[in-house]
Design a protein that fits this description.
The complex is a heterodimer. By secondary structure, chain A is an alpha+beta fold. Helix content of chain A is about 40%, strand content about 25%. Chain A has a 6-stranded mixed beta sheet with strand order 15-19-20-18-17-16. Chain B is mainly β. The relative contact order of chain B is 0.21. Chain B contains 3 helices and 11 strands, in the order αβββββαββββββα. The chains are: A alpha+beta, B mainly beta.
């Protein structure tokens, strides 16, 4: 922040000059000839300033370079044609070198610039001012034989018409007029550079040599001519005053003599043959005529007044040299150039060290805290009466002022994006030359402003994108023309504000992206499978080129790929909280769309708490919040490999607990992950158990999950509490703690305490969340295979069989000591938590193997068994397994089993607990069978096969006829065909059409509206009940309390049968 | 006595050690029972400890972040870093904050703040260099001999690098 002295001032000023110089040099290629000299002059002045400053500070090397650049510029100025690319390159190289030396002042004195100077010299030689043609007229020239009277002196006047006009404002016409006024033009010659004059006017020096006879002495003539750029050479002086008969005396009448009528013919006859310099080549005669020296005025006309033909010629002549000062109003949108011109001359800005701005920002932040505190005190303490009227407006004003100040400070850090865009014309030009292509860069929206840090960080990715456009996007001219496109490719770089963000676009009219090639590459690199590719939209396919694997694979000759480093662009943008979208039309072009926040300094975030500590999650990373409680904790939290996952609509989202991450300083190893899963699994079960199970409902102990985005992946972060949203000022982590990946920074909250900001990517990495292993969501699920994934408990009783029961039906597992079992007759009981539990030995009811008792075994307590509590004796728990449950009822038909399935390569028996309970207490059977004649038809709508079986078996055993539909849509179809149902029992959560929608549809249909409709679901909260009733359900039942269910069915169908 | 003899007497009376060096001022504090200190020039301020925000995964030497007048400061446990065990925070605990020139804002917890003590050059014994980078006595730059006890001088510049190293 300290002022480092005038030399630094010089350095920054010089750099600004050099930036302008570079812009102008680039502009030279684009601009028309009119503004050529204006630009050259400007460049010259800028170089001169740099030279002067360098000299003052003793930067001799820079001075020398600048001096040579001045020389080159001077050479260019003296020409009429604009300098070519090589010359511009040379000067650009000089400018670059000076910038380099400015950056390294210590090494400046000893820098080696010999090569650069040699280069300049070579250029200079090519660009030397055209030497005037050799003297043309010799004393023995025949024209000298016919001198007019009084003209003793014959001069050869040589002048370069362009220079003459430029330097002295003397047009060729007026020059000739003047010459004629000074004497008599005996002969004249115009040298025009080589070129086909029918195509275009010549560029280059136009040397005019005239043989002029005059009565004026040389000195007088020079004075009278008054042209610095004309050179006069005496060809023949006055003869020695020898009186010779017939010689007229010099005419002293002012030296203005009328040319004689015969002159025109002579002159026309002597019309210069137009010879191109330096090498002889024929020029078209017709053009020659047109370019002839303007014919002198006819004798009668006033001197110098043009005749029509001369007029035409004058115009041509005028055009030959061009009219300078006509500044092209930059309609070609090289806005950067134009802006730099304005910028260079504007004095309404000042340079401020960045540290000062940062300090101001910190102070503004602190002021915000003070404002917050004042507001809080005011609200909490509610001052009365006078104090309030005095204090409140003060606080309000403080609020306003602080807000304004904060805004202003943020804006201070904003800089126009043009600063960044400015360097691209040069880049594109150089690349185009290198690649042999023709590319034009158009820039729009340079005045759009961005925070300084974002601007700096954007430089690399944008450069990359533009390189890619030039490299892979725009085709070589030949290819373009063949495709019917203009030979010059266009890249448009634009920036604009859209809804609180900056939208930057890089658009080209090149070859576009070939989707087929993208697909092939993705397959070849193993980035996606064929089915996955089939499901991707075009937009998603384009985005594949941003994957790391994609870019490293692309060979230089690859036609399709946008190639090297696109993933780098993506990661850079991610760090800026930016979003990149790609659109393309094969053969027509491609657009890269970037969206960035305006500032990184202040971001909105969500505050969450774990134990007593608060953390901030940036909103941009937060997708949604999910709250689970009650049964959902069991039904929606599942296990995939070594991870807890939650089913969120169609996808499986991996879960991780923030409390776990905090307590584990090292990144999770697979062992750690497995341990955590084990730790949490049984917790879930007792989670619901401890919360009491009146009527089978669990008192909700909610689990809060924040679904976060890390790059392109999602995962859920389990936290203890969700607090509020807040806008925070982001401070980077302390340098000593940079390695901690889980936190991206820290902030001061409204109450003055520090909170850490979570890095979603860091957390994911720390927890080792494996997205690759994430079970891909079932590809477009067929209606029949619906939500089949269920977690079941696998266990053993006797040595031979493997049993299973869905976790959803288990209240808890309890280890018991066999010696605590009490016997009453044949029946065994055990007391647990104050109640007497009847022990069920499976071999008593099913034909399965007996179990050898051990001293300790496990008791499985199922849910929903209303009568007396039962516990199923297990010898061991094998595992829990997330299964795609497809039950086969054919293999073993037995009372007490729902069905069988192969799990872990073994036939597994799925227990039907309620049937077992029935078997245990045969007195309490299901409600009486309804007589066949009166069989009621029940439409059951359920997507889970397991429950389909269960409910069907309950109903059929109770004598109902069951028609099964797998989702709402199917159910409606059935209802359309066949309206004769007594009751509809429906699940809520189903694919394609859920229960709510079904209910509404049914109620909306007048023919169906009267049908009794019952919801049978795991959703058990008050809101769910209310919603069900609101959607049109008559009843809401929770899965699956058999007695209640059947009783309710009976009730509902009973009422129906009443006429 | 001759003049020269007088001079000889005078020179005998002067301390015969190193040529007079300027005394250094040390800001002292207690960690446990022992007395430690840092050069006063390094100290920016001494503060009461504001509420701490712990930083998960940070090494044990990091107590957490505190907010001092709107600036987030890193609070370190010097006692832990010296191998004396973790600090317990009491009413006497203070935060010694160091100058910005020594690094991003940070400070250390001390059990009790002491006085500013002047150490003459002859009271100071330099610490032998320690080769093991993990040895906590790396942090000590010397020992001062006070009347009643020893004063261990801490090298402030070594503190942050040690923390950074400990972050794996």
């Amino acid at each position: 922040m300290a002022n480092r002295g005038p030399i630094q001032e010089f350095v920054s000023e010089a750099k600004e000059h050099l930036a302008n110089i570079t812009d102008d040099l680039l502009g030279l290629e684009r601009e028309r000839a009119e503004s050529l000299h204006y630009r050259l002059d400007r460049i010259f002045r800028a170089v001169h300033s740099v030279k002067g400053g360098a000299g003052f500070f003793g930067c001799k090397t820079i001075e020398r370079i600048a001096h040579q650049m001045e020389t080159l510029l001077d050479l260019a100025r003296s020409r009429t044609e604009p300098p070519d690319a090589a010359w511009i390159d040379g000067l650009l190289a000089g400018a670059d070198r000076i910038v380099g030396l400015l950056d390294d002042l210590a090494g400046e004195p000893s820098a080696d610039i010999d090569e650069l100077l040699a280069h300049f010299e070579r250029l200079g030689r090519i660009y030397e001012p055209p030497s005037p043609p050799p003297p043309r007229f010799l004393p023995d020239d025949p024209a000298l034989n016919a001198l007019p009277a009084g003209h003793d002196h014959v001069y050869e006047i040589t002048v370069e018409l362009g220079e003459c006009f430029r330097r002295e404002g003397e047009s060729p016409l007026s020059l000739l007029g003047r010459l004629q006024g000074l004497g008599h033009i005996l002969d004249a010659h115009l040298s025009v550079p080589e070129g086909d004059l029918t195509e275009q006017l010549p560029r280059g020096p136009l040397w005019y040599q005239a043989l002029l006879s005059s009565s004026l002495a040389e000195a007088d003539l020079l004075r009278a001519l008054g042209l610095r750029t004309a050179s006069v050479r005496l060809v023949q002086g006055p003869p020695v005053p020898v009186v010779i008969e017939g010689q007229a005396q010099p005419d002293t009448a002012g030296g203005l003599s009328e040319p004689e009528p015969s002159q025109p013919a002579e002159l026309i006859a002597a019309a210069p043959t137009i010879a191109p310099t330096p090498t002889p080549a024929p020029a078209t005669a017709a053009a020659a005529g047109a370019l002839a020296v303007p014919t002198p005025t006819p004798p009668a006309a006033t001197l110098g007044r043009p005749v029509p033909s001369a007029q035409v010629n004058a115009d041509l002549a005028g055009q030959l040299v061009g009219d300078a000062e006509g500044e092209a109003a930059g309609s070609s949108a090289a806005g950067a150039s134009a802006r730099s011109v304005e910028r260079g001359s504007s004095s309404s800005t000042i340079r401020i060290p960045v540290a000062l701005v940062d300090q101001l920002m910190t102070l503004a932040g602190e002021l915000v805290l003070v404002r917050n505190q004042a507001t809080r005190v005011l609200n909490e303490h509610q001052p009365q009466g006078d104090l309030d009227t005095l204090f409140r407006p003060i606080v309000q004003r403080l609020d306003l002022v602080t807000g304004g100040m904060q805004e202003a400070v943020i804006r201070m850090r904003m800089q126009p994006v043009g600063i960044l865009f400015n360097k691209f014309p040069r880049l594109v030009r150089d690349l185009a030359r290198q690649l042999g292509k023709q590319i034009e860069l158009t820039i729009q929206g340079t005045e759009v402003e961005l925070d300084k840090t974002i601007l700096e960080a954007l430089s690399d990715p944008l450069t990359h994108l533009i390189r890619n456009c030039c490299d892979h996007g725009i085709e070589p001219p030949g290819v373009r023309v063949a495709a019917g496109k203009p030979a010059t490719g266009t890249i448009t770089l634009s920036a604009q504000h859209i809804g609180g963000q900056i939208a930057i676009e890089v658009r080209d009219d090149g070859r576009g992206i070939d989707l087929e090639a993208v697909r092939r590459k993705a397959l070849a690199q193993g980035l996606r499978t064929a089915q996955e590719l089939a499901r991707l939209s075009d937009k998603e396919l384009y985005s594949l080129i941003l994957l790391p694997g994609f870019s490293t694979a692309t060979a230089v000759t690859d036609v399709s790929g946008r190639g090297v480093g696109m993933d780098v662009v993506k990661t850079n943008l991610d760090r800026l909280s930016g979003v990149l979208e790609i659109e393309s039309q094969f053969g027509r072009g491609t657009v890269f769309k970037l969206r960035l926040p305006l500032t990184l300094a202040i971001i909105p975030c969500l505050l969450v708490a774990v134990h007593s500590e608060r953390f901030a999650i940036p909103q941009k990373d937060l997708e949604e919040l999910v709250c689970l409680y009650g049964e959902e904790l069991l039904t929606r939290v599942e296990y995939a490999f070594d991870q807890e996952v939650i089913r969120l609509r169609d996808r499986l989202v991996p879960l991780v607990r923030l409390s776990d991450i905090i307590s584990q300083p090292r990144p999770f190893t697979p062992a750690v992950r497995a341990e955590l899963v084990r730790k949490h699994r049984p917790k879930l079960m007792s989670h619901t158990a401890k919360s009491g199970e009146e009527a089978g409902y669990a008192v909700p102990v909610p689990m809060y999950v924040a679904v976060l985005r890390a790059g392109s992946k999602r995962y859920g972060l389990i936290v203890d509490r969700i607090l509020n949203t807040e806008e925070i000022v982001v401070k980077p982590m302390h340098a000593a703690l940079k390695r901690l990946g889980c936190f991206s920074g820290a902030t001061i909250l409204g109450d003055g305490r520090v909170a850490l900001i979570l890095s979603t990517e860091g957390l994911a990495r720390h927890a080792g969340i494996s997205f690759d292993n994430e079970p891909r969501p079932a590809p477009s699920r067929r209606v029949a295979d619906t939500s089949e994934l269920q977690t079941v408990l696998l266990f053993r009783y006797g040595p031979h069989e493997q049993f299973a029961m869905p976790l959803a039906m288990i209240r808890r597992l309890e280890p018991i000591r066999m010696n605590r079992i009490e016997r009453i007759g044949q029946q065994e009981f055990i007391t647990s938590e104050g109640e007497s539990i009847f022990i069920v030995r499976l071999d008593h009811y099913l034909s399965v193997s007996r179990c050898e008792d051990r001293s300790e075994m496990l008791l499985l307590l199922p849910k929903y068994v209303r009568r007396r509590p039962i516990g199923i004796l297990l010898s061991e728990v094998i595992d829990t397994e997330l299964l795609n449950v497809r039950l086969s009822t054919a293999a073993i038909r037995a009372d007490g089993l729902v069905g069988t399935a192969i799990v872990r390569n073994q036939m597994t028996l799925f227990l039907d607990v309620y049937r077992l309970a029935d078997l245990i207490e045969p007195q309490q059977k299901a409600p009486p069978m309804i007589s066949r004649a009166d069989r009621k038809r029940v439409l059951v709508v359920e997507d889970t096969q397991f429950f389909q079986h269960l409910v069907r078996s309950y109903l059929e055993t109770a004598g109902y006829e069951v028609v099964m539909a797998s989702n709402g849509q199917e159910a409606l179809a059935y209802l359309e065909q066949d309206r004769d149902f007594d009751l509809i029992v429906s699940d809520i959560e189903m694919p394609l059409m859920d229960g709510w929608a079904l209910a509404r549809a049914i109620r909306a249909n007048p023919r169906l509206a009267k049908l009794p409709l019952v919801a049978l679901t795991t959703l058990s909260s008050e809101q769910d009940r209310a919603k069900a009733l609101e959607c049109g359900f008559d009843q809401h039942e929770v899965k699956v309390d058999r007695e209640r269910f059947l009783a309710m069915v009976a009730r509902m169908t009973q009422s129906r049968s009443k006429p | 006595m001759t003049k020269s003899q007088q001079l000889i007497e005078q020179s005998k009376a002067m301390p015969s050690d190193e040529p007079t060096a300027r005394p250094i001022h040390v800001c002292t504090f207690r960690l446990g029972d022992a007395l430690y200190g840092v050069e006063i020039a390094a100290v920016k301020e001494v503060n009461i400890l504001p509420p701490l925000t712990p930083i998960p995964h940070a090494p044990k030497s990091v107590c957490g972040y505190v907010n001092l007048r709107g600036q987030i400061h890193l609070c370190l446990d010097l006692k832990q870093m010296l191998g004396l065990g973790p600090s317990t925070i009491t009413a006497q605990t203070r935060l010694v904050v160091f100058q910005a020139s020594l690094g991003e804002p940070f400070g250390v917890l001390v059990d009790q703040i002491g006085d500013i003590v002047q150490l003459q050059a002859n009271q100071l014994e330099p610490q032998p260099t320690v080769s093991d980078p993990a040895d906590p006595s790396q942090l000590l730059t010397g020992v001062g001999k006070l009347e009643a006890e020893l004063l261990l001088l801490v090298n402030v510049r070594k503190i942050l690098p040690l923390v950074e190293q400990a972050t794996r």
